[in-house]
């Protein structure tokens, strides 16, 4: 059977990178694929402490806000099994098992590890930062997912995940795990930071002005667009080699208006026109999401969904883990 699985960390409110790279493609799938296909979306709160612990109340609030954000964007809990990772202890057990099939040197070579470890002094890097991809692999394999829709920044992790599924099957002479396939929508698979366009837009790195969050107010959107990096040339041209910042704004404009670059007539725009037009389009698109989010954020509905879906996901996970424990020799 085809099983779609993806995860998002409750490290903040989703930004336009998450929206175009992950959430919007997910919603398109949710609304178009055969209803028999299982769709699972995990708010991966255990991943959120891989850079170190957070205050408990903050983590709880972040998880609520992420869940509310996803629903506000159009995730339909009757169609997508939307759940909280930490409600499924089986995932951590599988992650431990996968660790026996992986080397530290391979994990330490992953680009995201290399990048994020730079925030720590040499002796201070948390273990979770290194083993993060094992937990991510376990997220997917616990549910025997076959297809993983994610943004382009996850390609290396998906390769590692495929390798682990293969290694497990080979070691134990089984075909228990399908080799999951990455699914990345080519358009807007990577949205760049508004302040440092060589980097991707991110929840947990770069300042608040580097990203537009889906709950930002109209004023904040306008301010962030105005202050987005551009260059000294007055006119707008699309040139990724030499004008990455301006090209990124055009890419965003294309994404938000769902029009291709060739259909946008920016010949008479100044970079300021581009920024103001972009802000207007972003605000139009986000206004209803913002409203829905405010309605949901503190509602009991969110708790109910997480509780109910946690039960459902745990049932699938336990069934699969029983099989895996037997294969490994724990049972
Ligand atoms: P963090 O900085 O805490 O890692 P993040 O912004 O990278 O946060 P994640 O929760 O790690 O977000 O990823 C959620 C999903 O969003 C993944 O599918 C990821 O590939 C996608 N994604 C993240 N950033 C971008 C981006 N800039 N452009 C496109 N997709 C993105
Ligand atoms: Mg990330």
Automatic annotation (TrEMBL):
<keyword id="KW-0067">ATP-binding</keyword>
<dbReference type="InterPro" id="IPR002305">
    <property type="entry name" value="aa-tRNA-synth_Ic"/>
</dbReference>
<dbReference type="InterPro" id="IPR001412">
    <property type="entry name" value="aa-tRNA-synth_I_CS"/>
</dbReference>
<dbReference type="GO" id="GO:0005524">
    <property type="term" value="F:ATP binding"/>
</dbReference>
<dbReference type="InterPro" id="IPR050203">
    <property type="entry name" value="Trp-tRNA_synthetase"/>
</dbReference>
<keyword id="KW-0648">Protein biosynthesis</keyword>
<keyword id="KW-0436">Ligase</keyword>
<dbReference type="InterPro" id="IPR014729">
    <property type="entry name" value="Rossmann-like_a/b/a_fold"/>
</dbReference>
<keyword id="KW-0030">Aminoacyl-tRNA synthetase</keyword>
<dbReference type="GO" id="GO:0005759">
    <property type="term" value="C:mitochondrial matrix"/>
</dbReference>
<protein>
    <recommendedName>
        <fullName>tryptophan--tRNA ligase</fullName>
        <ecNumber>6.1.1.2</ecNumber>
    </recommendedName>
</protein>
<keyword id="KW-0547">Nucleotide-binding</keyword>
<dbReference type="GO" id="GO:0004830">
    <property type="term" value="F:tryptophan-tRNA ligase activity"/>
</dbReference>
<comment type="similarity">
    <text>Belongs to the class-I aminoacyl-tRNA synthetase family.</text>
</comment>
<dbReference type="InterPro" id="IPR002306">
    <property type="entry name" value="Trp-tRNA-ligase"/>
</dbReference>
<dbReference type="Pfam" id="PF00579">
    <property type="entry name" value="tRNA-synt_1b"/>
</dbReference>
<dbReference type="GO" id="GO:0070183">
    <property type="term" value="P:mitochondrial tryptophanyl-tRNA aminoacylation"/>
</dbReference>
